[in-house]
Give the backbone structure.
Amino acid sequence: MSAFVSKLSAVWTQVVTSLRAFLIIPGREPVDYGFVASDVAQLHRLCADPARGALDDATWKDLLLDTYRAQLSKEVSIFGQQVLYRRLREGLGDDACAAVGERVRELMRDPERLAALHRDCTSLRHADKEIATLLFADAAPPAPWWVGKTWPLPLLLLASIGAVIVTPAAWLATGVVAYILMSTQMRYHERVDEWDLSMNALQMVLRVSSILGASKDALLLPFAGAGAAAGKLNRQLSRAPMVEMTPGARTYLDWFMLDNVNHYFKGVRLVHGNLDFLRACFARVGELEADIALARHLLDAPALCWAGRHAHNTLALEGTVHPLLPQAQALSVRIDGGGAFISGQNGIGKSTLLRTVGVNLVTARAFGFCYARRASVPDLPVYTSMQSVDSLLSGESLYMAELRRAQELLAAADGPHPGICIIDEIFRGTNHLESVSAAASVLDVLAAKGLVMVSSHNLVLASLLAHRLAPLCVRLDGAGRLVLEAGVLAHTNGIALLAQRGFGPAIEARAGRVFDWLNGYLAHPGDCDGVLAGDAAREAVPA
């Protein structure tokens, strides 16, 4: 019987859709609500897998992953957005990642099927309330004893009004009943209104689950068998059709029979009595919508390959680009253990290179693909230090912020989820001598424990850390294309930029004289090869 009802519901939906199209009645376009970041992150916060090393807040911000997630989430409901966020934040294990990759590739091979599934999920975008908290965190509020027993109240109200003809004292009874009705309504109306928003979102999930459960599409097998149950629960959570269609009657029922309050507690009982089923529906719908979003995004990706993932400290990205840069020049990066020291002229793209590597490591871990021609990357968490700033509110200077972040990276390297460190211009907040000294020490320890990529204008670090980090230089080749080659920057351009930016010959000449003096006084990178390498040799000898 339930299967028949589910099929009848699907046929009726198709008939209504066809009739609207025939009569040229446009469907109500969904509104893509601007959910705040905390709403999108809620599923991850409530259901984070402790076995996976999740990205921390600083890395999320450094790699501009909110902007990237927004690009993935076009025409995606809050449910799909939450799943995409969770995948990006903590990644997927090998089996789950392979399954996602297979589903996404299957959708990409059949654009018509992809478009049809996207249409089937469109109604989810009418949801304007985050419900992961309801399903995974909230406890059921206790129901008062009188729930479901308020039907005598309107009768008492009518009886008291009628009794006024006999005795004016009946007004007292009228006032008491009216007070009970109004005070109860006022006590619960905010909670009921919030619940209605949650039910609107939850019923969207159940409606789509019911429709997809009747489909014969092999990709929708997880929905099979749950469609009828989803439809039944959806109907139970709804108020009577006549009540929904007649706002006037609904108002009277709410104020004189507390129908909305009774329905609220009935809904609470139904939701918390079916939490496992509702969580499964929520997960299936969110996962499907996330897969659809990825497939639609990748059909227009500037470069794409399915990455080989491993657990070693080696990295190879061939022809990789950043997904947020529409006309980015492709670069190839290869690091065989230890790490790399990146140098290059001002404005050449060192920071962009680091972010490109970082976001590709994240997408490989979250979805299984990279924006590259070929990729072989470690399945490890990423930790970055790229945007430390002075903070007036916290009273933290730039250098103090950099020191705090360096301590966090060192702690992560010794923690349960060591990963890859990507660092841009380490310790800018202090003088040159102390910056080089502190940076060399911290980077030496980090590179001894894992894979490190660092860029810096302090080129002496390349020699100090040559025993740990391979020197790589970003430059333009003869055709004006970016390349990454072995070596250290030979010709800096900081002073030349003074002239290009119109500072005038006097300032440029003075800067040149100071540079020549400092270059002769301090810059002897060849003399420092053994300063830290000796420590490494001593550490390798058993005590």
